[in-house]
Design goal:
- This protein has twelve helices and eight strands.
- By secondary structure, the protein is of the alpha/beta class.
- α5 runs parallel beside α6 (126-142), α6 (126-142) packs parallel to α7 (179-201) and α7 crosses α12.
- The two termini are 35 Å apart.
């Protein structure tokens, strides 16, 4: 029986008593927020962390707490990874493959949210191209380095419940661009990727899971804007008050990263493999509308047929089979 945690649990509480010496863990997006805290918590328990970031100078400064808290055996190595460029993705993966050292866990943490309409270096809609396709190629390329018994942890979001998922018009070439719909689709794709990766690799003892970290104030929301955020929070708290419930509370970064480390090194592999996690536990499958106090994952995000179809579509889009 695993220990019971909840939405208020922090990384240090999840990892209390855990010894990660000898473990090697790859994390994308270590230049701010959840990525830095995830790396810090793991290195503090002795893990060797390889942190990937687009801006190495920014990551070097941001990860000072990781190096400061690293326990005996723990440490941090930084590598350059631009998920919005498949050329950069492949170069980073090839460098890791050439190095040859294995990983116990890969955490796909990096991402962008609600960006203005744009395209990646390869012409994909920015959020789908960065959040899903960049990680799709990167994780698949480094998959041979993941040891038997290892895991892949993909950060998704409850925002996947904001929009139905379809393989049609992923680049918004035939419909009006909506930054929040685009984000929702990219997060559903993250969950579906974990489902299919888990199916393909579980026979060799590698499991994959996706998760919602919670609502946290980080740089991820910089494109939303304070005015929009304040308006949304006003509406949310009004609805909560009408229902006789207390005001909405944001998670701290340490609480937000807790589910990542729980799914990566604490929860049993058979519990999280192919599943969607939140609040350091397994989410309930639900059709209920998205709300600030509702948990759960949409059935379409875990559908194995959709996951396989997205995999094939993704291979077609990036011109590479895995």
């Amino acid at each position: 029986m695993t220990q019971q945690f909840d939405a208020t649990t922090t990384t240090d509480e999840v990892l209390a008593g855990i010894d990660l010496r000898g473990k090697r863990i790859l994390i994308t997006g270590v230049s701010s927020g959840l990525g830095v805290e995830t790396a810090r918590a793991l290195a503090a328990r002795g893990a060797q962390v390889v942190g990937a970031a687009r801006d190495l100078a920014k990551a070097q400064a941001a990860t000072a707490p990781v190096r400061a808290d690293a326990a005996d055996g723990g440490g941090l190595e930084l590598i350059e990874l631009d998920l919005a460029s498949l050329r950069g993705v492949r170069a980073c993966a090839d460098a890791l493959l050439k190095d040859g050292r294995p990983f116990d866990v890969v955490i796909a943490n990096a991402g962008v949210m609600a960006t203005p309409q744009g395209r990646t270096a390869d012409g994909f809609e920015t959020q789908f191209g960065t959040n899903h396709l960049g990680h799709f190629v990167f994780v698949n390329r480094v998959a041979p380095l993941i040891q038997a018994g290892g895991r892949v942890v993909v950060l998704a979001s409850s925002a996947h419940r904001m929009a139905d998922f379809s393989l049609d018009d992923l680049n918004f070439e035939h419909s009006a661009y909506d930054p929040h719909v685009a984000y929702a689709r990219s997060k559903t794709a993250n969950v579906l990727f974990a489902v299919e990766f888990d199916r393909r690799h579980r026979a060799r003892g590698v499991r994959a899971t996706a998760l919602h970290p919670g609502a946290i104030h980080t740089g991820l929301g910089r494109h939303v804007g304070k005015e929009t955020t304040d308006l949304m929070m006003g509406q949310i708290n009004a609805a909560l008050a009408a229902a006789g419930q207390p005001p909405f509370e944001w998670k701290t970064v340490a609480q937000g990263a807790a589910t990542s480390v729980w799914a990566a090194v604490v929860a049993p592999a058979q519990l999280v493999g192919g599943r969607y996690c939140e609040n350091c536990g397994i989410a309930t499958v639900t059709e209920e509308p998205l709300s600030p106090v509702a948990d759960g994952v949409r059935p379409y995000a875990l559908d194995p047929r959709t996951a396989e179809a997205l995999w094939r579509k993704s291979e077609e889009m990036v011109g590479e089979r895995f």
